[in-house]
């Protein structure tokens, strides 16, 4: 009988610094052995997607100490072993999910162990490469809309058609997160106003945007206000995926008062300038495993997230396969840093 593989190739950070590409290498790492820890699932990787957080952790040395750690967050693959206490998945299940970065054992390797609660069964409408584009964007969208805004006082719920057509601004609608925010907000009954380049407008309307606005236009703010007025309700909710400046701009566009405050979710830094009667909430779910409140929310919401993905159905980000081996990741992260639009860069290990 052949001996089990004890090492595998992986994408590893050797340090941190402004020249982040010089600190990302392909290296041999230990392959998981024995049984997974309690509550964990061993997954053979079929596809893994690249995210900005992968290079930002190396460039800016934030969130976790990444030196000598395997990078990567998004993954799709096959369950090959189960830890004790895992009863909702079985060996052979096709899954997709997110590896919490505080576990410091990322998805850019062939086999890894992931907490079961961060995995979902892959529905039939998604291929492995498509499913791999979703986890970070999907969980960020769910947390930002249905956990963090309500946690700050917003009244909307994680329910279909519950928002009654209230306007909801998505700035950066063609971003990875923005695409999923549009879908979930529309499913929750919001009248979605999406800001993005005009070339993406047709696609964003397919995702569920009721109105699309080109950020290049001189009258962007006027168009947003007109769209909200046409919806017949005050614009009190926004989700920004672009920058501190657009987060502040979104906040200033809200029709907020002391009796009816506004709420902006951002995945960038919170602006220093405050806007009266508007709460700006920074959503970060990358460190979910170490945060008891975030973990509790995920455990409670997981079945509903899976149902929405399968039943809406949630569409993946457009896929750009950049290679079939981990060797393609460092150049892919440099490419992502330079800027990509309305697509997710993916490694397709199933074709290796």
From TrEMBL:
Domain Enoyl reductase (ER) stretches? 21-347
Could you tell me what this protein is called? Patentmatch against protein AC Tremblnew
GO molecular function annotations of the record: oxidoreductase activity, acting on NAD(P)H
Spell out the coiled coil positions from the record.
none
Q: What top-level branch of life does the organism fall under?
A: Eukaryota
CDD domains from the UniProt entry: enoyl_reductase_like (cd08249)
Q: InterPro entries of this UniProt entry?
A: ADH-like_C, ADH-like_N, ER, GroES-like_sf, NAD(P)-bd_dom_sf, Trans-enoyl_RdTase-like
Q: Which Pfam families match?
A: ADH_N, ADH_zinc_N
């Amino acid at each position: 009988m052949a001996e089990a593989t004890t090492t595998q190739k992986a994408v590893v950070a050797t340090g941190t610094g402004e020249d982040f590409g010089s600190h990302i290498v392909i290296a041999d790492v230990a392959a998981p052995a024995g049984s997974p820890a309690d509550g964990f699932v061993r997954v053979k990787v079929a596809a893994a997607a690249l995210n900005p957080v992968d290079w930002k952790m190396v460039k800016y040395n934030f969130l976790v100490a990444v030196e000598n750690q395997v990078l990567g967050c998004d993954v799709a693959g096959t369950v090959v072993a189960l830890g004790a206490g895992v009863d909702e998945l079985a060996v052979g299940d096709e899954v997709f999910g997110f590896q919490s970065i505080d576990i410091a054992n990322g998805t850019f390797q062939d086999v890894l162990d992931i907490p079961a609660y961060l995995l979902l069964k892959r529905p039939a409408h998604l291929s492995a490469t498509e499913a791999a584009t979703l986890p970070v964007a999907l969980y960020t969208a769910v947390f930002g809309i249905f956990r963090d805004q309500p946690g700050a006082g917003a009244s909307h719920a994680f329910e279909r058609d519950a928002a009654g057509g209230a306007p909801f601004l998505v700035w950066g609608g063609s971003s990875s997160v923005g695409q999923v925010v549009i879908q979930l907000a529309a499913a929750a009954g919001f009248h979605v106003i999406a800001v993005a380049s005009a070339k993406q407008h047709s696609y964003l309307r397919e995702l569920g945007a009721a109105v699309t606005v080109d950020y290049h236009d001189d009258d962007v703010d006027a168009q947003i206000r007109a769209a909200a007025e046409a919806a017949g309700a005050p614009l009190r909710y926004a989700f920004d995926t672009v920058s501190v400046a657009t987060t502040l701009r979104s906040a200033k566009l809200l029709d907020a008062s002391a009796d009816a405050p506004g709420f902006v979710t951002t995945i960038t830094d919170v602006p220093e300038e405050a806007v009266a009667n508007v709460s700006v909430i920074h959503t970060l779910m990358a460190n979910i495993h170490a945060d008891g409140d975030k973990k509790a929310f995920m455990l409670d919401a997981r079945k509903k997230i899976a149902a929405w993905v399968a039943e809406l159905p949630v569409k993946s980000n457009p896929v750009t396969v950049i290679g079939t081996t981990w060797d393609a990741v460092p150049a892919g992260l440099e490419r992502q840093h330079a800027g990509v639009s309305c697509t997710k860069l993916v490694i397709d290990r199933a074709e290796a």
